[in-house]
User: Fold these one by one.
Assistant:
Number 1:
Amino acid sequence: MTLTQSSDAEALAGAMLPRTGERQRGIDRAIGVLELLLQRRQPLSAGEIARALKAPRSTIYEIVNRLIEAGMLEPAGAEGQVFFGRTMHLFGSAYLNSDSGLRRFGEALDSLSAATGATVQCCTRRNNKYVVLDCRDGTGAFRITSEVGAEVPLPWTASGRALLGHLSDEAILTLIPPADFRLPNGGLLSPNQFLSDVAQARQNGFFEATGLASSYTWCQAVPVFGRNGIAAFTLCFVLPIDSAVEQRERCLALLIEKARQLSHATAG
Amino acid sequence: MTLTQSSDAEALAGAMLPRTGERQRGIDRAIGVLELLLQRRQPLSAGEIARALKAPRSTIYEIVNRLIEAGMLEPAGAEGQVFFGRTMHLFGSAYLNSDSGLRRFGEALDSLSAATGATVQCCTRRNNKYVVLDCRDGTGAFRITSEVGAEVPLPWTASGRALLGHLSDEAILTLIPPADFRLPNGGLLSPNQFLSDVAQARQNGFFEATGLASSYTWCQAVPVFGRNGIAAFTLCFVLPIDSAVEQRERCLALLIEKARQLSHATAG
DNA sequence: GCATCTTGTCCGGAATATCGGACTGTCGTA
DNA sequence: TACGACAGTCCGATATTCCGGACAAGATGC
């Protein structure tokens, strides 16, 4: 994993792909295509994909056409561009409905959303980033929404603190790219501050933050522990910054309660 | 597409896979594995998958492990069994959030569900079966739920009538396997009755049915037409059989209105 | 008009992924 | 105990997939 020049191909290689530069198997190319589309979150043409992946054009055309045939990709957007297809949704739904996985979280989100009307999410760590796995959008005037599957730097989120409690300071700094400490508002977060946040989250069993990803939100995150005692997921509320203190406290209490119920009951 | 002996491998071959019996590419094997899991809707072991697909065991182990590594499959169930993984859900969510595809349908379902409290679905034809693409479960005492992605014989459903209006009688009888005329209650539906149902749905612009898939439900289906004038989707209500007539009529009117709004505005 | 960059397709060659089969252990069961 | 079925791993050979490169046709820019 070199740190010379950054590129999509290398970023994905670090995340998923085994070897790079060499001749690759079709299945590896296919996974690369899908991961790229997930990261970019918009239709891409075969040529763009090949360039981003540093893969042969002819190969990508072949793979993309096969995936379209299977319904996992679909023509989308202007000309020759593709994005995820209908079959992918069916696969994803089958996962959600399966016993293990997110089923219990979906019910928890429903209940939390119904009880508060606020935006509530289930999040996890993936490729050393933070991702929203599932969410229920709030009903208020300021409708705070979040995108499932988009990877966000861990230091930008309250959940980022709650997800790293089992790691040493050194391990944490190793897995977070330095660039991720640059917040979206341009400010730089000190790594030491972040480490102290993580320690605080570990001690309290939750973390509250504001002004991180957005200055209009107040975020609460509570870890959900797997059987191995590691925080595999978080449950979080995303509240408007001007929420009443009582409302905040009520939400946090509900969150802690639900997270406790889910802990250990889920795969780690 | 032979009609000699039925097997999973052949059923899937007819649906998705190009050639069978020969050496196959990894990507084709992978797609076969995913389609099989979607069809079975439960965790399977590598051995079971290999047997069902008539594929070499060593190859399936290899493919399954690669898919697990990518998060598209996950260990699930007792021992060595696998099912869809977290990454699949992220891919599927990206599809749902994309402009084309089901986004507009999701909003329509929300609105219909909110207005009536009934179970409402968006359905389509896939592999010459009926599948639910997305749904909102009703709120009533008799909570009627439906499983997204499960393939059901077209003659079992009201939507099955509404989806075939653009086809000739002959074409319809060709694409429906004879076994699909056997209803879940054991009764046999006459093909001619089905053809006349389809004609009726074409004329009325909707179809209502009861006692088909279940004797406790009253189903309403309205086609949604793509740019090519073909019914690409249906919107349907699944009501308890004892719903008041006024409620039924109100639901049907809402359904027709929404389907009209969605027609042509969506990819065919 | 010419140069440059695309997209999409096609083709032959060679690196290698798929396959069949062997092997070990484990579990029931007769 | 012997037997059969199954999970999981490993390995060598060869049929084939992936790759690089060429090509036509269209866009774009100067």
Number 2:
Amino acid sequence: MAALKYSRQRESIKQYLATTYDHPTADMVYLHVKEEFPSISLGTVYRNLNLLADMGEAIKIATPNGGDRFDGRTNPHNHFLCTKCGKVIDLDMEDISHINETAAKNFDGIIESHSIIFYGTCADCIEKS
Amino acid sequence: MAALKYSRQRESIKQYLATTYDHPTADMVYLHVKEEFPSISLGTVYRNLNLLADMGEAIKIATPNGGDRFDGRTNPHNHFLCTKCGKVIDLDMEDISHINETAAKNFDGIIESHSIIFYGTCADCIEKS
DNA sequence: ATCAATAACGATAACAGTTACTATAATCAA
DNA sequence: TTGATTATAGTAACTGTTATCGTTATTGAT
């Protein structure tokens, strides 16, 4: 069972995720929350980020090359990762969950979900070039 | 520059990727090629897998939890990862590359590509349960 | 308010996957 | 065959993450 207990550190992490659009890595969260709790441990950040993700209060975005990113916005949406600067941006795009059925057509197992990341160049990086 | 030189080890790795449907991890490739080259180094396997991926002769599939998988079949296709047994299976599904345009609609940057992994339970694991 | 039970903490070690280094060996063009 | 250069094996180092452990904080019952 493991009843959940309140902690100020977890609350601060949650708060940060709720207010930033940066899709921070665990380390970025650590550096930010460290300002309020100078003695916080990186392990505490990881533990709470995973806890929040497991409870559905945050999304963990797995990326190739570099650490996972975390997103406090849990409504279904897709992500874009800029291959130039590494920024992760929320995409405002129509629902494409129908691709699960497309995938299931010639497949014997059960398709439950999918994860997508779109890659390319973000507006800022286009401007700079 | 950097002219490529033949190596028996690289050839063996390529051969293995071309004949297996297992989407092996670097370590699985290592263990297999070790049978032909008992003194091969894991570093050699990584170096060549990345080389092949860079040259477009193999695909590197990034997965959350656990190492990247490699696929010698380079024609465009999608992958399914069984959350029960970890197996990666090629999906025989119709092309969905149009989702790149869908994503680009309300987006200022340039969408160049995407990566998808479908998750669920494979036929073998359904049977066992 | 005090206490006991236990979840969460901070510090640090351990771990997995991967890359970097270096001296030796294999490839290849002249 | 020689010389230039790439690839190798072996190993150390590195990154991102999880586990361990003694101490602290939270909570529910007294």
